[in-house]
Amino acid sequence: MNIQLTDKVAVITGASTGIGAATALAYSDAGAKVVMADINDLDGQETLKLIVNNGGEAKYYHTDVTSETDVSALMQTTADVYARIDILVTCAGVLQGANVRIEDFDAATFDTVVDVNLKGTFYAVKHAVPIMGKSGGGVILCIASGAGVQGGSSSVAYASSKGGVNGLVMTVVNQVASLNIRMHTICPGGLATPLKLGQIAQSAKREGKDPDAAVANAVKSLGDPAGVARVLTFLASDEGSYVRGMISTR
User: How far apart are CA 176 and CA 163, in angstroms?
Assistant: First the structure.
């Protein structure tokens, strides 16, 4: 099956590294016009360069997903440039507070994780939906996790935020169906992303172990973000239009 996203306009938050960057590259290869958003400008520009050098069309905008003003501006700018949004992928996320017990968990850390992972997803969906509706519909893919949806997590805050993303999608999916907008929660397994590898290194340090050795060992069993990007490409395409509900990947 030849999956194509020809001329579709895709907005991807958290697009500088990990699943977001892999998805930006995959979408561009499939013919989409990619709008990348992140606060990690250095890696974002590198991913942008890869797309452009490969003949793709992409733009990068510094966007803090915890700021509703930033997210609203991102969606409006996309609409001003392309007159539509066909696909939204919410990849922006952080993992903090790994292996900290609930009675010791700092409220500020909890707020930070929820603000990025859950509130950032809420802002993105909120401000993309009206534009998608006006242009005939689209697909919204929200990255959650097995953590907080199918099981626990190393972080109280991370699991709470990802469970919240799943709840958000389950609620909004019926609200936007009449606008011809399809939504999915995506629950990836363990992947070799900067987020995951950073958590592994941090945990190793806390336990007095060699963080580099821990990361090197973990990479052997972790999945490739590009594999998830291929799933997200299928889901965003017309070929994926019969899929419903939550999707889990390795």
Answer: 20
Output the pTM of the full model. Answer: 0.92
Name the burial class of residue 75, with classes exposed (0-12), middle (13-18) and buried (19+) by CB atoms within 10 angstroms of its CB: buried
Say which of 60, 82, 123, 158 is annotated catalytic: 158
> Rounded mean pLDDT of 10-32?
97
Contact criterion met (CB below 8 Å) for 181 and 242: no
Confidence of residue 65 (pLDDT cuts 50, 70, 90): very high
Q: β-strand 87-90 against 247-248: which pairing, if any?
A: unpaired
Active site residue 242: no
CA–CA gap between residue 194 and residue 109 (Å, rounded) = 19
Q: How confident is the model at residue 204 (pLDDT cuts 50, 70, 90)?
A: low
How does DSSP assign 41-73, residue by residue?
A: HHHHHHHHHHHHHTT-EEEEEE--TT-HHHHHH
